[in-house]
Structure prediction request, 332 residues.
Amino acid sequence: MKKSYFSLFVAVILAVGAVSLSARGSSSGGVSIGATIYNFGDNFMNGVVAPALKKHAKENKASLTIVDSENQQAKQNDQVDIFINKGVQVLAVNLVDPASARTVIEKAKAADTPLILYNKEPTEAGVMDIYDKVWYVGTNSAESGILQGEMIAADWKANAGWDKNGDGVMQYVMLKGEPGHPDAEARTKEAILSIKGKGIKVQELALQADPTWSTQFGNDTMAAWLTSGFGEEIEVVIANNDGMAFGAITAMESAGVSLPIYGVDALEQALQLIKEGKMNGTVLNDGKGQAHAVIDLAMNVAAGKAPTAGTDWKLETDGSKAIRVPYVAVTE
Prediction:
């Protein structure tokens, strides 16, 4: 499925503006929501999700405060305590550590404060069952990797020249996100399985992971790979997110190298790079949709309604109490 979201994303970003690296309120009065972002250094969370949360809260006349957890779970735990002490009606938490969900859920339960976890899904099995007022908004992590892999496989088959050494094997490098993060693990695994599933042989030349998913990491790592002993063998660059892909592109341009490269998130800059022919594809991680679902659920549960009442959102029927926002492949 090919779609161009460039105009849409430009409009959204220009409309809501950038979000500063400090606590902010979107409006006064109405439902009060205390929200955390695991790390404002994350291009996607700070550049797409946070502005959309702020905008949709304002549209619903809710009072929203967003804080930066600075990639520290202990700091986030303290922030949750502060929100609870201030009497917010709903907590919206983008976990720093998905394995630490129990602590946050128990805090919310003790205060009888509804909790919406988003973007980072708890990894502990059954932990959502300990509290009846906790829900999750996110994606099917595997889907992004599958779509990314399908794009890569289709392009590989359509471009015989990408197989530089003519051995019939795709030699690739992988820029991986945070180790243990459900999205990073699923994207890394499923992208390659999807490529193999199309009958393409692959060889991993290198894989490096970054807890912050940063552009600087992508730049530094790609620069090192290009000057390594296998630098000239690289045929495809796969990144778990657009941010790291941006850094890799900068490194390639500095080295005078052009290689097929794919990311995930469909950030505005990625869409522009695709238009310019500097990036081959990305996968729309609908941060705006996730943000809307978070605010919609918050408004409902604060009013004592069913989480999805009056909305088009659907909770999964497997008892996971999760809303999954679909991914979309973007190649043009």
The chain has two domains: 14-139+287-326, 142-284. The first helix runs from residue 6 to 16. The CA atoms of residues 178 and 212 lie 6 Å apart.
